Amino acid sequence: MAENYSSMIKIMKEMARPALKLINAERPGFSKLGGLPNLPAGLDWPSWLGLPLSFIAQFDLAELEVSKTIPEFPAEGRLYFFSPGPWTGQWQQPFGNKPEDAGSAVVIYSRAEPGPLSQAPEELSRPGLFDEYETGIFSQRLLSAETIISWPAPNSLSCLIYERPGRTSDSGLFFPEMDPLLDEYLNHHREIFGSQPGRQHQMGGFPDPEQPGDMRLDCQLGLSGLKYGDQITTAQAEEIEQGLEDWQLLLQLDSDACEDLPDDGGSYMYWGNEGFMYFWIRKQDLMARDFSKVWAIMQWT
Q1: What pLDDT does 8 receive?
Q2: What is the average pLDDT across 190-211?
Q3: Which of 59, 108, 162, 171 is buried most, with the most CB atoms less than 10 Å from its CB?
């Protein structure tokens, strides 16, 4: 059994890849979470199901030098992220686990000059749509970034290894006790993010999932117009399996749980029950600078 742990830890480290940890900026810049976006002229505020989406984040890719750490990302231009806030009543935050969730996450890539602060739609500016007391505009935090080494999490490692050439389901992927592997991962994770919640914002790399399983499957199923439990043909199953390797993490956002959040009148950013939001993109779409098929998944424990 000890050999299994050693082998799995070795594989986990071999699969590691660079990513960017998003941290509070020491000086003003373009990149930020929350607040209002600086949309270029001619870009409309996105909506879903007839309601405006909340502005989540914007990043200047050159300012953060993203491509130096993650070469497949654009070296220039800006990304704008939008997603539903905690809608009440019939408007629930989508989990990203069914095809109807398509379009709930909007990511805009633009090389145009950013404009002044955009005016939020009226529905977002007043309490009621999202929460009895809070609006759909989140507190603003200016961001910088630093390079980290991202490891795959143990609760999704077996799914990832299964896709590696030459490995099969009897290669020691499943075993009853994962404590040593989990301890190794958590120690590495604490070295990067610390132990205080609300700071695990990351661009690229591997996600830190709240649930077991393979988020890439949710993405591939949703983009194919399918969900878990649907009857599919053998050809569809093969196409879905082949498509898993296309997906990579674009952005991971933590829920707000820090004591140093600004008191600017904005709402706190919560994903479900203080979970995470994960934005995924296919590698071929990223290379084509096509962010129209981004898929978002929300998880919490």
Answers
A1: 81
A2: 91
A3: 59
